[in-house]
Amino acid sequence: MTADHRVVVHPDADTLAEAAAARLLVRLTDLQSVQPETHVVLTGGTVGIKTLAAVAASPLVDAVDWSGVHLWWGDERFLPDEDPDRNETQAREALVDALVSGGALPADHVHAMPPAGAYATPEESAAAYAAELARFAPDGAAAPAFDVLMFGMGPDGHVASLFPGHPALDVSGTATVGVHGSPKPPPERVSFTFETIRGAREVWVVAAGAEKADAVARALGGDDVHGTPAAGATGSELTLWLVDAAAAGQGAA
Q1: Is the sign of the CA dihedral 110, 111, 112, 118 positive or negative?
Q2: Euclidean distance between CA atoms 11 and 18, whole angstroms
Q3: DSSP string computed for 84-97
Q4: Dist CA 89 CA 153 (whole Å)
Q5: To which H or E segment does residue 16 belong?
Q6: Are the CB atoms for 5 and 204 separated by under 8 Å?
Q7: What pLDDT was estimated at residue 4?
Q8: Cα separation of 159 and 242, whole Å?
Q9: Is residue 179 within 8 Å of residue 166, measured between CB atoms?
């Protein structure tokens, strides 16, 4: 099967978040008609968290059987548990805690990357997360074939915690990697490797703002991953770019 590659442009960041939320909820309900469990990777960032908040507020949220959904993260800041800068903390506040406390989502279906304090180094956290991924992986794989893997993208073109020119870009043979010296604070992080990303069925890159336009153009133009890591964030069945007009280089909405 040839992987599909699509770009969808929305007028502004708020519309983008609402549309991404609706798209995710519809995709989950469609998947649940043909398979018992779905595996989704959440992203942080301004638009990513806005998207999760829009999921929480949507009337479609109750159409999903959350008992069959597993939530994961593609990267995380190596910070203490409940630190407000952790992607997990922000996602819990926007959506996840409400689903768990309301009984819709089993708590053990929330697969957060281990924080600083639970492990001493990003490498130890990455190894523990790799072991968790392996528990749900099909035979011979290091991770689930994620149904939807969502990413934001930085102005430098990074996705997850894979930054331009960084050694983590070339790590292979493992599902996760500990990151040191991140150019964006904090310097220590945990990230999926490209091998894990490319094992996902669908990869969605969600980006908004004029400061992202150059990186969007480079990624869609096929730039090398060492210069624009987002260019390597592709799904085995679908790569979907959800951007606002400014990120698409169309000027302010």
Answers
A1: positive
A2: 11
A3: TTSHHHHHIIIIIH
A4: 19
A5: helix 13-32
A6: no
A7: 94
A8: 14
A9: yes
pLDDT value of residue 140: 86
Q: Which residues of the chain have pLDDT under 70?
A: 1-2, 251-253
Chain centroid, CA 100 distance in Å = 20
Instruction: Determine the pLDDT at residue 227.
Output: 97
DSSP 185: S
Sign of the dihedral through C-alpha 4, 48, 86, 157: positive
pLDDT at 250: 83
Residue 35 contacts residue 201 (beta carbons within 8 Å): no
Beta-carbon contacts of residue 35 (< 8 Å; ≥ 6 apart): none
Q: Comparing C-alpha atoms, which of 72, 3, 60 is closest to residue 32?
A: 60
Contact between 189 and 76 under an 8 Å Cβ cutoff? The reply is yes
Q: Which residue has the tokens 């009337």?
A: 59
Structure tokens at 24: 């995710």
Tell me the two tokens of residue 201: 């069925």
DSSP 103: T
Looking at residue 230, its pLDDT comes to 98
